[in-house]
Amino acid sequence: MGLTNGIEIVLPTLMVLVLVGKENSLGSIQAFSGVFVAFIIYHIGKRVNKDRRFIIFSIGILFSITASLTFSLYYSALGVLCYFLINALAGSFRWTIYGPLSFDVIDAEERKSSKHRYSYIFDQQLYLNLGRNFALLLFIPFFLSNHDIALRYTPLIFALPQLLVLWLIGFVEKQLIVDDIREHSARFNYVRAIYHNSKQ
Fold this sequence. Notes:
The chain has one domain. It has helices at about 1-20, 25-45, 55-75, 75-110, 115-145, 145-160, 160-200. The protein is mainly α. The radius of gyration is 21 Å and the shape is globular.
């Protein structure tokens, strides 16, 4: 997630400056994308629940790969617009799910150990920022050597590894379900033991 986010911080600005050529276009495109995404996310958010987190995250990654592939194929101002619109949806889907899922994992881990929840949040932000910095360190030499090729294919190169994140999210979701079942079973056994003791 950090790798992709690091690239997404820098690339949109470069896309607009190189292919559109007008700096004021950047704000207009971002504003339009923001309004478009807010409308979509609002209506989706009213209809989904926790059980569909994996599906929503999968759609986000699919949008991210689609946006990157579209931009690579249509390396032009039109490609930039398509990338902004599709990737804005992708980012909203990914981060809308990533946040709650992260806090569910933190809650589950906090119950198992004595570490404070803020230490988990610190670890999460540390690795996200390391990923962002590493992505920029990879991109800058690539961009300086050939900016057209770097700009055209970097989004796709960094979007495809998100499929591994999809597998990881699925694994985490299953583990959280198992932990919930164990916790509820333990509570049920505890209540049943109290009930039997009271009967005796």
